[in-house]
Amino acid sequence: MKLKESLELLWDELEQFQIHYDPNKTRAGTNEILIGIGDENNGGVCLNNRRTEYESVTELLYYSDRQTLELPVSFHETQFYIEDLSPDSCLAFIFLYCLNQGMAADEFPEDWVDYVNKWEMGDVKTTGEPFQSWGCLHSALAQAHFTFYEETDAEGKPISKIDQANYVNGFWACVTLAVEMLLADVIPHEVPVLDHVEEYNRAMAFLRFEYQQYLQALKQATIIQLELPVKNSNRTLLVDAFIATENTYMGLLKSFLSNDSERTWLRSGFSLIALHRPGLKGSGNDIVISVDPNMNIHLKDLWEKLEHMENERWEGLRPCDQPRLPGRSPANQPWYDDMGRYTLVSAPKKINKELYGSKLEWSDVVSALWELYNPAKSLTVRPYLEDGTIGQSCYIYECQPIVTDRESQKQFTAVKWDSLGREQALVASPSMKRYLAVCASGLYSGKIPPIYPLPAERSFDFLELPCGFAVIHSNGILILDDQNNEQLDLPAYKGEFERLLQRVQTVSKIHAEISRKVDDIQKKLQTRQTLSGKYLISLHHWIAQQKMDLRNTILRTMPASVDHNLQVFRETVEKRWGLNNQLDELYESVAEIEHIITGYAEARTNRLISAITIYGFPFALFAGLFEFIFEGIPSPKWFGIHWVGFVSFLLFSAVSIVGISKILKRSHGDELIKTSQTERLNERS
After folding, report:
1. Which residues cross the membrane (predicted)?
2. Which of 265, 276, 210, 220 is nearest to 241 (CA)?
């Protein structure tokens, strides 16, 4: 029978077979076939590739002699036991059925066998883009059928068990999807749109859901570039790395990461994936670091370092009586090394129910990863010294600054590329820039900058110069002379730094003085103390002095060169340090204080003028007038006072004072109304 005839017959007979999920079954009894599990035939058949030269059960069937398999005559009377819902389990079942129907093994598409081999080996890069990959579609559909329910054990503790019925339904759904693709002659790594197939549509829906989870995981992960060693070579390769804690399991995370060319700096997907799954502690899958096996890179150094750290933590008490990897590690539960391939490193499993196999934390693993593979690990330079000479070769984080100002916590460092160093080329990756920004800031002087916290790219500037580049941080500047083009004009760049540093110092000093002066004025006003004329004069003198200090500093720290690159450097530093905004804010603060003081002085003067107007004018007017009017009028002159004139003078003066006060208040009110109306008109216009 031909392949397609067998597939069509299988499609018609689906769900008529007896499928069981039992990953721990080891013996195949009569009329039993175990797929991917078992090591003993007891009247049945164990199809397990683990102790063979084959990468998958499907490949085992492809190259096996049908006569030696001893397949049962009728599949309907056979009990099938599967290890999982992997593509290999489903494809092996399909292959087995077709063989039993008389199909020749070489009729089965060899590209499907190759595909399932790659998938079993962890290759999710050459197996197709996630939305065009049979493996991804299959996995998304399978994971949707992983449901659990809780039972209580003999001790009354809750235990989770998988829903067998739903699991078997998932198996049939995955087999149906594969059969439909085989009937349509689909290439497994280039799956077209099959919207007429129900299982394909369901798989796409689940795949989109996982993709949304993946996008969210990217936001919470650490994304960096690392330099990993190439196998059988002294060279290293720069790769994009994804480091994250995975609290919710994502079966297709690796597929999305490996094929994500859009969100990786090298545009070739994440080649290193480091995952921490706290919920799986002790299983061996709680910490997993893997690299793309097709990149020819390895993690041997990491495995050796983790083993060394583990031995130190155990302090000689690490169980070593039953080595799991004899010849590579004496420990009962060492870090897994991918059978010596070192493309995957994972945590030790539990030694027993009470004792975990590892004493390392996730932070220890990440620190080791960064220490071994950070892109600047082997970067050596020669630092410029204070006298302008060049020092001895050293690592870049060991370089001392030429200029340091402790008050402002800013420094200036300049280095020259070491042409004799191991690094023959400097790749300015985002991680390298962030590493250099830490060196520029001086926050970890003399120490390897840790991976946490590397500064965000928005917190510094990376400026290319004819002599190399400058990394400009709020706490300092690092200039690297790469010797490729022009030579670094150290005095010019150092001079600009010192001039801008002088501005920073002046701004800081004046800001402190303004703060103190504002506090002093505010205290006097809050306690209703009158600002004396002498104090106001001293304030005006102080304001003039601050303005002159600012202007003098600006004039003395003007750019000393018209060189374009030097001007761009200066402007970038000014912007990063916020100097322009700070100067404007200081000017505004001084001007505002001056305005307030002037207003206060004017208010005092106006009150004095009002008092003279209200009280002085009536007295002056009526004093002369009544002296003339009552000159010849008789009146008792007790104490030498003309009492009629005096009383009349007081009476008319009082009436005049009241009248003038009302007139001034009305005039002031009208003025306020006109001002308010003018402001409203301005707002409307």
Report:
1. 608-629, 641-664
2. 265
What is the distance between the alpha carbons of residues 262 and 601, in angstroms, rounded to a whole number?
65
CA distances to 260, 519, 540, 595 from 544, in Å: 61, 19, 6, 13
Residue given tokens 């087999």 in the structure block:
175
* Rounded Cα distance, 495 and 403, in Å: 10
Share of the chain above pLDDT 90, in %: 49
| Rounded Cα gap, residues 664 and 681, in angstroms | 26
Taking CA atoms, 386 is separated from 419, 438, 441, 640, in Å, by 22, 21, 18, 93
Per-residue DSSP letters for 646-672? HHHHHHHHHHHHHHHHHHHHHHHHHHH
Using the 8-state DSSP alphabet, how is residue 313 labeled?
H
- Classify strands 45-47 and 40-41 as parallel, antiparallel or unpaired: unpaired
φ, ψ at 628 (rounded to 5°): -80, -40
The amino acid that residue 409 corresponds to is Q
Helix (H) or strand (E) segment spanning residue 594: helix 579-611
Greatest CA span in the chain, whole angstroms? 157
- The residues, any chain, with a CB within 8 Å of residue 470's CB and separated by 6 or more, are 461, 462, 463, 477, 478, 479, 480, 493, 569, 572
Strands 158-162 and 344-346: unpaired
With CA atoms as reference, report the closest residue to 282 among 364, 360, 338, 356: 356
pLDDT band at 678 (very low <50, low <70, confident <90, very high): low
Counting every residue written for the chain, the total comes to 685
Using CA atoms, how far apart are residues 130 and 149, in angstroms rounded to an integer? Answer: 30
Cross-strand pairs, 276: 245, 287
The pLDDT value recorded for residue 601 is 65
Report which residue type is found at 196: H
For residue 352, the tally of other CB atoms under 10 A from its CB is: 10
Q: Structure tokens of 587?
A: 């000017």
Confidence of residue 72 (pLDDT cuts 50, 70, 90): low
**Residue 180 clears pLDDT 70, i.e. is over it:** yes
Q: How confident is the model over 280-311, as pLDDT tens digits?
A: 899 899 999 999 988 999 999 999 999 999 99
21: which 2 tokens? Answer: 């999920």
Task: Say how many C-beta atoms besides its own lie within 10 A of residue 87's C-beta.
Answer: 27
DSSP state letter for 83: S
Per the omega criterion (within 30 degrees of 0), is the bond before 453 cis? yes
| Contact criterion met (CB below 8 Å) for 135 and 191 | no
Q: How far apart are CA 221 and CA 243, in angstroms?
A: 6
Residue 652 has pLDDT above 60, yes or no: no
Interatomic CA distance for residues 243 and 274, integer angstroms: 5
> Which two structure tokens, joined as six digits, stand for 26?
């080891």
Q: How far apart are the first and last CA of the chain?
A: 89
Handedness of CA 659, 660, 662, 666 (dihedral sign): positive
- Which stretch of 75-79, 227-231, 345-349, 675-679 has the lowest confidence by average pLDDT? 675-679
Residue 588 CA: distances (Å) to CA of 44, 543, 546: 91, 12, 12
Distance CA 254, CA 127 (A): 12
Given the structure tokens 């208010």, which residue do they identify? 603
Percent residues over pLDDT 70 in the chain: 84
**Local structure of residue 42 (DSSP, 8 states):** S
The secondary structure of residue 382, as a DSSP letter, is E
Vertex 324 angle, CA 318 and 328, to 5°: 85
CA angle centred on 654, ends 651 and 657, rounded to 5°: 150
- pLDDT at res. 334: 95
Count Cβ atoms within 10 A of the Cβ of residue 515 and give its class: 0-12 exposed, 13-18 middle, 19 or more buried.
exposed
Q: Give the β-pairing of 410-417 and 403-405.
A: antiparallel
